[in-house]
Amino acid sequence: MSGAILASLAWRFSLYSLMAVGGVNALVPEIHRQVVELDGWMSNAEFSSLFAIAQAAPGPNMLFVTLIGWKVAGLPGALVATTGMCLPSSLLTYAVVRLRDRYSQSRARLAIERGLAPVTIGLTLGSGWLLLNAANPHLRGWLLSAATVPLALRRGINPLYLLAAGALAGWLAAF
């Protein structure tokens, strides 16, 4: 582990923090591009696995950032990536909320809030597409994903059951 890697993690995740409109899941394609395609810190499969583990674990969606930091630079990397992802956006949120309260009836504020909704939806759909492509190199993976989506959209089905069923199906398909 080098200081350059930790500095890179801190800088990147600080920038991601400020771009994470709608949450870190909206940035999955860009994070993937950086850590898999440009830096080669991990493979597609490793990235998809870290994302799946973080989604299955209780807690915030941004836990996969911590896992990326851990994979790249151990405990210091996990701490740096997590702090980089949380601190800048928290400070910005504090400042924006103070301004929002001051200009609560402003037309510009309402327009900005309405304009960010479609941006967030588009970024989230892009993240889903990237993860689908990274996790499904074979037709059977695509078919399993297609069968899982309607089940995931139904209320009352715990996503952990779907993950377990997918893992079992993948394990059985290997034989």
Overall pLDDT score: 85
Radius of gyration based on Cα positions: 18 Å
Distance between the termini: 39 Å
Number of helices: 7
Q: State the order of secondary-structure elements, H for helix, E for strand.
A: HHHHHHH
The percentage of residues in β strands lies in under 5%
Which regions are unreliable across 5 or more consecutive residues at pLDDT < 50?
none
**Oligomeric form of this entry?**
single chain
Q: Find the count of extended strands (DSSP E, 2+ residues).
A: 0
**Level of helix content?**
over 70%
Indicate how many domains the architecture comprises.
Answer: 1
Largest sheet, in brief, is: none
Structural class: mainly alpha
Shape assignment? globular
Short synopsis of the structure:
This protein is mainly alpha-helical and 175 residues long.
Describe the structure.
This protein has 175 residues and is an all-alpha fold. The chain has one domain (3-135). It has seven helices and no strands. The protein has helices at 3-19, 28-38, 44-56, 63-102, 107-135, 139-153, 159-173. Helix 1 crosses helix 4, helix 3 crosses helix 4 and helix 6 (139-153) packs antiparallel against helix 7. The longest helix is centred in the middle third of the chain and has 40 residues, at 63-102. The mean pLDDT is 85.
